[in-house]
Amino acid sequence: MIQIVFVKQVPFSTKVKMDPVTHTLVRSGVRTQVNPYDLHAVRAAIEVKDQCGGTVVVVTMGPPSAVAVLREAMMHGADEAVLVSDAAFAGSDTWSTSYILSMVVRHLGGADIQWFGKQAIDGDTAQVGPGVAAQLNYPQITEMNQLIEVDEHSVTVQKVTDYGYRVVKSGFPVVITVNKEANQLLSPSLNDWLRAENAEIRTINASSLQLDMSKVGLSGSPTRVKRIELPSTKQDIVMLTSAHELAQVIKNLRK
Amino acid sequence: MLIKSADIIIIGGGLLGCATAYQLSKRTSCSIVLYERNDIASQATSRAACLLTRARTKPALMSLVQETYDCIAELSQLLNDSLGYTESGSITAVSELQSHVALDDLYVAATVFGLQASWIDGHQVKSKLPWMETSSVTKALYMPTDAYIDSAMLCNGYLTGAKQNGVGVTTRVGVTNILSHANQVTGVELSTGEIVHAPIVINATGAWINRMIYPQFAALATVPVRSHFWISESIPTIFPINQPFAILPDARAFTRPDVGGLIIGIREPECVAYDPSQWPDDIDDVDFSPDNGWSTLSQSVNLFEKYFPSIHDLRIAHYVAGPSCYTPDSMFIVGPLEPTAGLYVAGGCCGGGVAMSGGIGRMMSEIVLGETCFVDQSLFSPSRFVDVHPYSATLRKQCADARSNKKGG
Ligand SMILES: Cc1cc2nc3c(=O)[nH]c(=O)nc-3n(C[C@H](O)[C@H](O)[C@H](O)COP(=O)(O)OP(=O)(O)OC[C@H]3O[C@@H](n4cnc5c(N)ncnc54)[C@H](O)[C@@H]3O)c2cc1C
Questions:
Q1: How far is the CA of B383 from the centre of ligand 1 (A)?
Q2: How far is B233 from chain A (nearest CA, A)?
Q3: Domains parsed from chain B with CATH numbers
Q4: Which tops the pLDDT comparison, B110 or B285?
Q5: A2-224 sits in which CATH class?
Q6: CA–CA gap between residue B23 and residue A110 (Å, rounded)
Q7: Is residue B186 classed exposed, middle or buried when 0-12, 13-18 and 19+ CB atoms within 10 A define those classes?
Q8: Global pTM?
């Protein structure tokens, strides 16, 4: 079985900074990591591989520095890694990214399962997995929170819906996006790190993908971000250290 | 509460500032205020491995540690809280012949001081630490009363004790300047713009200690040096929390159980020292290792392998790194900062600030209050170093070497 897991590089710090002029996320200088949901997608793929065998390929689209997240994903068990990188991709929105990644799937010869994290913690759109499914005309299962059964022909998962859960079975190929509840991550070992560190990473650029260049990059992206704002957080928090202080606060509130 | 003046101002809400606040508040009815610009126990204190190693070759250091144990007992009772204290015992095990002498010296010093210590053989080490490969162990010292603690809880414990004694605490407000007039401290300026008058100011700002006093007053021979450890995944059957912590001088390593996992600290042959003048105000913004400690682990694991061959396959759940402030002679800096009257410093705690906190707090209090000090304060005197260039590469190298060459826990 061939599985592709798409992973994204996101800022490491939880302290997201916003550029006050451009209203975009300040990403430079911030250490990056694999989007946390994507590691659960990697784990799901490894669980499937444990049962059905085959190969797990991790793919990321990003600058050359994104190899770090590919290596991180490999530490968690992926067999191969592909970096999709080209200056022309800069500024691609979710629609354009979905188009590029769908062409990557084609370029790699397709896979039985294409895995994504439920969403990325920087943009929070949850659109790229479904977008790739739409571009490829594959069935999609979003928000998997439990892998129930898998064999060479189909996969059965429980997914989250607005009203509860639904059990869905699909044949291959399929696109699945994964919640954090879907599985427990295993910590890597020094040997896992060494294997990932020494692994060869393939790079694919725009020219190898036979893209319609009018659909990629900033100019090929229909999304227009007018404004992004950080929600204001409450700064006036007081930590109470005793029941007595709490009683005092309640007394004052009642006044 | 708007404070315009106090008798004593303490800058820094880490272990040293909080222990000093507690010890002072027990000894004086002076008005004491403490300012912390982040949260209490959020900086070096939050990253410690928390070993309370009692045995040291210098009696003064053992007295400082004993004082910490006494404080812990006192605070546990006062606050009705264990503070995460676990009396696990410790084992110091060596393999190389040349390490025997140092271990013999440690045994003599510890027993003369009155500590419980006994020699155990490889089999006994194995029975206490079944995960360890002990075939290379040629000598081992067991100290049954050694313990570890939760450093953040201890820090908050000191502070709660201090608050009960009337110390005023303000967090999220930093001191931007120490004020003085004619070689006498007069107070501090806060990040809020307020001025607080006081004749005594104690600088316990950890890695930022020089930033607070240099170049205005003087410089201290200490810089932050990266200290770190790895925590394995939780396997409580193999690493139960009551196992002794281990000090392995020949592997430059220590281990201790941690909620079912194993903390493994391994010192690099060449430690990394930082220029604190370039540092942000919060260590959350310091990148101690771009690859989360993996390359460091792979480079320094070779000596540790013989005690734990399966280290290569052990799942590592966390890498924890932070600034330990070292000095060229591996001794702390506690005392008055001459020539400015009323200005005191407590820092440079060389990876032992948890174990020594109560003692340093007491020493600082006794010095500030002009009482006879319970240990020889000259060992820790800020003026023992001369011609200090706090941001120089030379000092960084000296302090990094002090950590690299460290043998104990
Ligand atoms: C990885 C690691 C493992 C360790 N293991 C052990 C161990 O096993 N045993 C042991 O005994 N010790 C250990 N240590 C050492 C111990 O953690 C330190 O010695 C101790 O925490 C130092 O306390 P501190 O108060 O000096 O520093 P900090 O905890 O850093 O406190 C200084 C405080 O000052 C504040 N501050 C700075 N500037 C200002 C300002 N201008 N205004 C207001 N506030 C300011 C800071 O925000 C900070 O909170 C370890 C350290 C590390 C990093």
A1: 22
A2: 7
A3: 8-50+151-222+329-404 (3.50.50.60)
A4: B110
A5: alpha beta
A6: 69
A7: middle
A8: 0.90
